Amino acid sequence: MPTILLTGASRGLGIEFVKHYAAAGWRVHACARDADAPALKAVKGDVQRHKLDVTDFAATAKLASALKGEAIDVLLANAGISGSEAGELGKVDADVWLETFRVNALAPVKLAEVFVDHVAASQRKAMLAISSRLGSIGLNHEGGRYAYRASKAALNMAWKSLATDTKGRGLTCVVLHPGWVSTDMGGAAAPVTPPNSVAGMTKVIEGLKPSDTGGFINYDGARFEW
Ligand SMILES: NC(=O)c1ccc[n+]([C@@H]2O[C@H](COP(=O)([O-])OP(=O)(O)OC[C@H]3O[C@@H](n4cnc5c(N)ncnc54)[C@H](OP(=O)(O)O)[C@@H]3O)[C@@H](O)[C@H]2O)c1
After folding, report:
1. Residue 31 included in any domain
2. C-alpha to C-alpha distance for 171 and 183, rounded to whole angstroms
3. What is the pLDDT of residues 157-190, one digit of tens each?
């Protein structure tokens, strides 16, 4: 069966991905700051739990070394923060901005950097990051959310370079928008539930082709503009 490695597996979309792929019989490398989170521990199946704060780049590299030789079909950079405290003009907080960039933009790239060989050695060869529609410059008609939007736009740009740089190795590098989802981040008013979002995104992942590399795809399969 295929293998997936994902970050931010403790709750929200992350735990939903773990449940989905474990139930489908995949081997799941579930990385979380709290690898003993009860919800994560409770998932049945081939779930390997790893303690990982994605901003600890040495720990990310150490995990890649520990898994050397293991093919990873789908690498999924999911962990993210909202950066909302630095959201509006007049409240720009440099420390919050930098932390938001560290988690949302830099950590996925550091993850891809150390796991690219594992993914290239697999059958499916997919490197994915959960971005956001809020990271689209073309779709920004509402303004606000400065740190979050900018961090996801930076992630999108980095993933586009990753797609270009890995084309010769047959990798498919795509950023996904999960919808506005009722997780801790999305809030209770969000119209899409985590199971529905993950059902959509896993269908998209299942249908990915090498020609999709460099894409920005919604959970319902629609293509977004940058
Ligand atoms: N929900 C939405 O409407 C929505 C919309 C667009 C995009 N997204 C994106 O979807 C992804 C998942 O979000 P979500 O809705 O599931 O949010 P969530 O419920 O707030 O969960 C965030 C996850 O990221 C983890 N995380 C945060 N900082 C981390 C760090 N430094 N190291 C490791 N893990 C860290 C959290 O772990 P802890 O439990 O340890 O805090 C948690 O597992 C994010 O990238 C988010 O930007 C969400």
Report:
1. yes
2. 30
3. 999 999 999 999 999 999 999 999 999 999 999 9
- Give how many domains the chain has, as a whole number: 1
Interval between CA 84 and ligand 1 midpoint (Å): 13
Give the pLDDT band of residue 88 (cuts 50, 70, 90). confident
Q: Is residue 9 part of a domain?
A: yes
Prediction pTM value: 0.98
Query: Pairing relation of β-strands 47-51 and 74-77?
Result: unpaired
DSSP symbols for 52-121: --TT-HHHHHHHHHHTTT---SEEEE------GGG-STT---HHHHHHHHIIIIIHHHHHHHHHHHHHHT
Nearest CA to ligand 1 atom 21: 12
Cβ neighbours, 10 Å, residue 22: 18
Q: Is the pLDDT of residue 85 over 80?
A: no
The domain of 140 spans 3-218
Q: Does the residue 225 lie in any domain?
A: no
**What is the atom index within ligand 1 of the atom nearest the CA of 34?**
40
> Ligand 1 centre from 11 Cα, in Å?
8
pLDDT above 80 for 196: yes
In this predicted structure, what is the pLDDT of residue 42? Answer: 97
18 C-alpha to center of ligand 1: Å? 14
Q: Tell me which residues have their CB closer than 6 angstroms to ligand 1.
A: 7-8, 10-14, 32-34, 53-55, 78-81, 103, 130, 132, 177-178, 180-181, 183-186, 190
Q: Say which CATH number the domain at 15 has.
A: 3.40.50.720
Distance 117 CA to ligand 1 centre (A): 25
